[in-house]
Specification:
Blueprint (H helix, E strand, L loop, with lengths): L6 H8 L12 H21 L5 H24 L14 H6 L12 H20 L5 E4 L2 E8 L7 E6 L8 E8 L3 H18 L6 H15 L6 E8 L4 E7 L4 E5 L2 E5 L17 E4 L5 E5 L1 H4 L11 H9 L6 H15 L9 E8 L5
Antiparallel strand pairs: 1-2, 2-11, 3-4, 4-5, 5-6, 6-9, 7-8, 7-10, 10-11
The protein binds zinc ion.
Length: about 350
């Protein structure tokens, strides 16, 4: 009989509603991780001076035995099976700790509390990476809404102000494949990468191409992210490029224009190319970006909210300031999906050309 879920197990599971998203990471990856740990342990043990070897080496030798035992279990086909319930251990748990022998439900009380603390810390780190809530630069006004479905989020949202006053404001909104801790780690990876790359003066298409190459080389197979990256310049001009993300919505006075994707998601192919679209915003026009948690919010019957309904909701509120526009869109989504807890992370960002520079 299955024991009732611990809080830690529930939290970890909520933050990883698609627990099988790491399926592409195969056992060779875990074996490589174990081999690496074994090599590092052997090197460290061999460096301990003989005089103090027994006291210092004992815990390391114990650890080495554990690694050897894990490799043996892998050879025997019993690796990754919980010793308490004989069910498969969550793959994410194995990636985080390849020596673990218990599934989430069968962690000890101390281990569960440690997991809760780790998740809470991951959530705090992620929140600190978010940009300022109400940003102003020249005649641009930006506001966003960021709501993880679990403790941590796989959505990525950033606004990078230029180093000098004649530079351009960079805005980004993306969605990492999967959910939970693994997706949130990739989100922090995107954050660091774009913060570094956006300062070196690349054209927008080259910026995405380079980010894609770096992302391909530093992530594991099967991990990718869709993303929109834009730059707000002078006199209402915006450059925009998309790596397989949902269309951005240009909310203008005479209607809403969907600006579709021009490239493949980041992390799929190292050779991906991206093209840049240029749009001109009149004063009071807005550009709206969102993650799939918004467009794929469900109603009671499971029907999706959809990009068209979001376009309609935003189009009817042309001219609203970003904060009000976002609040109105969220209101519409909430009315649509009444009573249903969002299954996915929700992020919405509005960039408006204000009527005058204040
Ligand atoms: Zn178990």
């Amino acid at each position: 009989m299955q024991e009732s879920d611990s809080t830690a197990a529930q939290k970890a599971r909520n933050s990883d509603a698609e627990g099988n998203t790491m399926a592409a990471i195969t056992d060779p990856y875990l074996r490589e991780q174990l081999e690496r740990r074994r090599a590092a342990l052997k090197t460290t043990i061999s460096c301990i001076p003989t005089a103090e070897s027994s006291a210092s080496a004992t815990p390391l030798v114990d650890l080495l035995n554990e690694v050897d035992s894990a490799v043996r279990r892998m050879d025997q086909g019993t690796y990754g099976i919980c010793e308490a319930c004989h069910e498969t251990i969550e793959k994410e748990r194995l990636i985080a700790d390849p020596l673990t022998r218990l599934c989430l439900d069968h962690l000890t009380g101390d281990e569960q509390r440690a997991l809760e603390r780790d998740l809470e810390l991951a959530s705090q780190i992620q929140r600190r990476l978010l940009p300022q809530a109400d940003l102003r630069y020249r005649d641009w006004r930006i506001h966003y809404h960021y709501r993880p479905a679990g403790v941590v989020s796989g959505d990525y949202c950033d606004v990078i102000s230029p180093a000098s006053n004649d530079g351009q404001l960079v805005f980004l909104l993306g969605d990492v494949a999967g959910k939970g801790v693994a997706a949130s780690l990739l989100m922090t990876h995107l954050h660091a990468m774009f913060r570094s790359l956006s300062g070196i003066g690349l054209e927008l298409d080259k910026l995405l191409e380079m980010a894609n190459r770096v992302f391909c080389e530093s992530t594991m197979a099967g991990q990718y992210a869709t993303l929109i990256c834009g730059r707000a310049g002078q006199a209402g001009e915006i450059e925009i490029a998309s790596a397989g993300h949902f269309p951005a919505l240009l909310v203008a006075k005479d209607g809403v224009q969907q600006i579709g994707s021009t490239g493949l998601p980041l992390g799929m192919f190292a050779t991906s190319r991206y093209t840049v679209r240029r749009v001109l915003l009149d004063p009071r026009d807005s550009l709206l970006l969102y993650s799939d948690g918004i467009s794929e919010a469900n109603d009671a019957s499971g029907k999706e909210y959809g990009v068209n309904r979001l376009s309609f909701a935003a189009g009817a509120r042309h001219g609203l300031a970003p904060k009000e526009l976002i609040a109105a869109c969220l209101d519409d989504i909430e009315q649509y999906s009444l009573g249903i807890r969002p299954a996915d992370d929700q992020t919405l960002m509005a960039i408006q050309r204000a009527s005058s520079v204040v």
